[in-house]
Amino acid sequence: MRSVEVIRTYDLAKYYGSVKALDGIDLDIREGEIFTTLGPNGAGKTTFLLLLATVLKPTRGTAIIKGLDIKRDPARIREIIDMSFQEPQLYWRSNALETLKFHASIYGIRGSERDRRIRYVLNRLQLERISRRRLAGGNPRAFEQI
Fold first, then answer.
1. pLDDT tens digit string along 30-78?
2. Which of 12, 50, 131, 136 could connect to 25 by a Cys-Cys bridge, CB 3.0–4.6 Å?
3. Residue 27 lies in a domain
């Protein structure tokens, strides 16, 4: 039985100015394979996953996920994949407003449309007055106190 290619990257790279966060990854992951990223801090593991999830745009190259190109089909890719980080550190360092902005950016919602939707959500959840409050001491249990 022939396995199907699920993810294929072609010279996938992400630069921040002169810093090469990821420099030309070529790989092929087939259906049924187990794949993991290993390496020291700063090796580009998170950058690689954020590129595949279409949160970041590549500086060079591309990736094809189930036949969809991350540059041409980001909305369709976000409909078929999910990403969950090992530890949700983003939330312990952010406030409600920053968290909503982050999630809006994942879906490509920007500018006045982003701001309108965020105001709506904060209003509906009655979080306007604390939307900029940082969670004390990075304590995940702080959410229980709100």
1. 998 998 888 888 888 888 988 998 888 999 999 999 999 999 999 899 8
2. 12
3. yes
